[in-house]
Give the backbone structure.
Amino acid sequence: MKKQQVNNQAAQSTTRDAADGATHEPTLGDALRSQGVSRRSFLKFCAATASMMAMSPAMIPKIAQALENARRPSVIWLSFQECTGCTESLTRAHTSTIESLIFDSISLDYHHTLQAAAGHAAEEAREIAMKENDGKYLLVVDGSIPTGNPGYSTIAGISNLDMLMDTAKGAAAIIAVGTCATYGGIPHADPNPTGAQSVGDLITDKPIINVPGCPPIPVVITGVLTHFLTFGTLPELDHIGRPKTFYGQSIHDRCYRRPFYDKGLFAETFDDEGAQKGWCLYKLGCKGPTTYNACATTKWNNGTSFPIESGHPCIGCSEPDFWDGGGFYKALSMPTENITKTAIYTAAGAAAAGVAIGALNKSKKKAANKAHSKVTIDDLEK
Amino acid sequence: MTQTIPSRMQFNIQADDTLTWNVEPLMHEIRHALKNLLEQEQSSVIDLRSLPLAPGEEQKILDLLGRGEVSANLNALGDSEVYETTYPGVWLVTHYNDNDDIVGRFIEVTTIPEILMSQRPDITDAHERLVNLLDTETLSEH
């Protein structure tokens, strides 16, 4: 099903290339050949790209075909109420030759943290890029947008809201990077003093890809950019706008500690036998079952590990309102029966049990969201 | 909690014999792929980075497969290492970048991994270069 769709996308992108053929803009394939990159190197690049985009290795030939014809898009990056963690994450992503090839092939025309220009010169660069690439540029946003008082956050005297609305008009698509831009994030946490809203709250007439996480995994950001660059289309999205390739499965379902959960083996405290043996962190508040992200397979720091591998429960940072979810160290839900027994007795239906508990968790989380309970010091101490 | 779990699983990767169970299913997947290659001449690729593996499990898989008769190194956008395992038809392909970070690791079940074969555009380019070299004027410069 997925494969079929991507095939269609590749076909569309080929058609588009044929239609634009007269423009003779250099494609990524041209750029690589002119740099003396062999076909074999290109195939390796495509294999790594497929792996980065969490696509089936069967897609490698399609990626090769699409990348050959990919064009160099203009990218405008706007940062609003944010901590620059997302940019920090992204700039850790392209230390390697392969990812830098991707970045060499986009034109980052405005990013006020990374660009050398400042003040009016910087704003002018943004206006020029918008004018020259009207309707075609990719807009990347990190940070939430304050709607309470425009003075809460301004850039060159322009309110975040005005800048977003103005820049979104001519964009082909918008990529919201980080939990602040996608769902409001920490600025949006109760009591939301700045009236922070997400990109999707404010813009309804453009395709938006949500790439949440606090911050998102670097290769997930580059993977989404690469997908757009490769196929010229948006990836398949879930019900809250996240690419399914990276956010299609829960941390819990892809966790290497899942077999312990299925056997009912849990760490009860951070220093007990279970914790030392690497058992499931569910009872220590792990939000893995209700969190959809690629941490468990893609991992962090060039694939070194992810929080659960380091012995800490997932805090669910890529989910809406994770900050108001009722305490990072509180278990999602505790069935009235002893969960250890429940899990063992349903060994044959372990997956079904997981689904049921997941459903319980969701309703609990919803209740917590409604109550807007604040995190207190008691929540942090177990 | 001092519960011991009786089990028939063979692949224990943690020091205390507590099991994580991702190795055996993957070995079965390789077995199925090899059967496909044998009966239908169909190649398969398994992306090791897309699988949830516990610390040590990837190494366990590689140890089980072992190193066979053929090894090759590529220098293409950083190093790549390709070798056939002790199970002919099962290859391990590892791509590195310039910083020697692994950017892709695949188990390929095939008669020869595509990346080892000379590629047509490269052969075309090689032919042109040879023709240029054998052009008498060019050759005399060498």
In short: Confidence is low (pLDDT under 50) at residues 5-19 of chain B. Residues 23-40 of chain B form the longest helix (18 residues). Strands of chain B lie at 44-47, 71-75, 79-84, 90-96, 102-109.
